[in-house]
């Protein structure tokens, strides 16, 4: 398994898609949404305090120690409108993201020393840069700022029969269509996609696209 340091691990993240996790959000969240008139994602089957996502696709990520960085890099590429990367390109993107995350740690040294990292800062940064050291919540937080994109982490809830949001990062960069990753609760991250029709804001974007296409067609008639 490897030994734990600052929330990361030495070794490989094991590629297993499982969900022995039960994540229950506070019932107050449900009441708060109703009070504020918030419309929940139609892909979510809501039951007081829970949003259970049952329509999704899991993109399997190799368990080579880069799984978290690979998953984020994969999602960032799709979010930018580019085709899915090959395994080798995905690895390159993951390693590049890892280096940028480590650099961002240095820029945020005082903040990160206080909030996340225990022990010697420089030695921890040197470990983060190693390609087979696992990423964790601090790296998710930093990655959202490096990419300037929101990142959402989901886990599978077997009792609910679907996915539940575990944590979100970088919401200051927007809340629509975040990079989505699936955490198995123990050792592995996979990339995650929701159907386009179920993404928040997708209807308005689809209507705008359709309207623009109709305008172009009309110009040729």
Written account of the structure:
With 221 residues, the chain is of the alpha+beta class. The chain has one domain (4-220): Cathepsin B, Chain A (Alpha-Beta Complex). It contains seven helices and nine strands, in the order ββαβββαααααββββα. The chain has helices spanning 27-36, 67-79, 87-107, 109-115, 121-128, 137-147, 202-220, and strands at 4-5, 8-9, 44-47, 50-53, 57-59, 151-157, 162-169, 179-183, 189-193. It has a five-stranded mixed β-sheet with strand order 5-9-8-6-7. β8 and β9 (189-193) form a beta hairpin. α2 crosses α3 (87-107). The longest helix is centred in the middle third of the chain and has 21 residues, at 87-107. The chain is globular, with a radius of gyration of 19 Å. The relative contact order is 0.20.
């Amino acid at each position: 398994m490897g030994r734990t340091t600052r929330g990361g691990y030495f070794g490989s993240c094991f590629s297993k898609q499982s969900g022995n996790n039960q994540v229950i959000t506070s019932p107050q969240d449900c009441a708060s949404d109703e009070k504020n008139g918030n419309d929940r994602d139609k892909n979510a089957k809501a039951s007081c305090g829970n949003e259970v996502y049952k329509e999704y696709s899991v993109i399997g990520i190799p368990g080579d120690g880069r799984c978290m960085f690979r998953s984020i890099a994969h999602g960032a590429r799709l979010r930018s409108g580019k085709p899915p990367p090959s395994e080798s390109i995905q690895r390159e993107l993951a390693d590049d993201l890892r280096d940028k995350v480590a650099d961002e740690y240095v820029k945020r040294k005082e903040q990160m020393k206080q909030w996340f990292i225990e022990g010697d800062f420089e030695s921890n940064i040197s470990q983060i840069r190693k390609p087979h050291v696992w990423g964790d919540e601090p790296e998710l937080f930093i990655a959202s700022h490096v990419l300037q994109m929101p990142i959402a982490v989901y886990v599978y809830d077997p009792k609910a029969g679907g996915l539940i949001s575990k944590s979100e990062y970088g919401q200051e960069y927007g809340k629509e269509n975040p990079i989505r990753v699936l955490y198995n609760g123990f050792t592995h991250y996979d990339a995650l996609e929701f159907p386009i029709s179920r993404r928040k804001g997708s209807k308005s974007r689809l209507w705008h696209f359709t309207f623009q296409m109709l305008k172009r067609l009309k110009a040729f008639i």
